[in-house]
């Protein structure tokens, strides 16, 4: 099974087997997700057997369903020519909302450069504030924040538009 499908806590394979024609299924639980084989001793080696495999998982990781609220520029810090500070409200980090293990937030900042769209980002931070460096001076930018679990990024917050002031070159 691909790694992406067994990333939730409590993942286990369930293996069922029975002699062909029997009504009763035997069951074994294999707790290692990377198991590629399993052996069982049977009375009749050359008889036909039916085998089924299933799995149990506490929760499989999916795209988070929560969206950070009140995403905005941090009013306590000025916007620099090459840096902006953001704050937002924390989200409910329960597994039901995050659809897996909470890893942090991802802040994306977008801008146009000629006919290309450029992007700066900061991620894997559990804090509800971020400073993004390396932004272009005197440029209109757009920013948004999302929640991340181990494998997915959730829906983005509302977009905020802002302008960086004029400034010197970054080294």
UniProtKB/TrEMBL annotation:
InterPro entries: FN3_dom, FN3_sf, Ig-like_fold
Record-annotated Fibronectin type-III domain positions: 67-167
SUPFAM superfamilies in the cross-refs: Fibronectin type III (SSF49265)
Coiled-coil spans in chain: none
Name by which UniProt lists this protein: Fibronectin type-III domain-containing protein
């Amino acid at each position: 099974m691909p790694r992406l499908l067994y990333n939730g806590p409590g993942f286990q394979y369930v293996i069922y087997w029975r002699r062909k024609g029997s009504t009763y299924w035997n069951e074994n639980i294999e707790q290692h997700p990377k198991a590629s084989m399993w052996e069982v001793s049977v009375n009749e080696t050359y008889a036909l057997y039916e085998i089924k495999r299933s799995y149990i998982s506490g929760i499989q990781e999916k795209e988070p369903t929560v969206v950070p609220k009140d995403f905005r520029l941090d009013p306590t810090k000025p916007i620099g020519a090459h840096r902006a500070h953001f704050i937002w409200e924390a989200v409910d980090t329960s597994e039901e909302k995050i659809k897996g293990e909470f890893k942090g937030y991802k802040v994306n900042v977008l801008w146009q450069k000629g006919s290309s769209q450029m992007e700066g980002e900061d991620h894997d931070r559990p804090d509800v504030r971020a400073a993004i460096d390396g932004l272009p001076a005197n440029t209109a930018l757009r920013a948004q924040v999302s929640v991340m679990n181990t494998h997915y990024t959730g829906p983005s917050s509302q977009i905020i538009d802002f302008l960086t002031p004029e400034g010197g070159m970054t080294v």
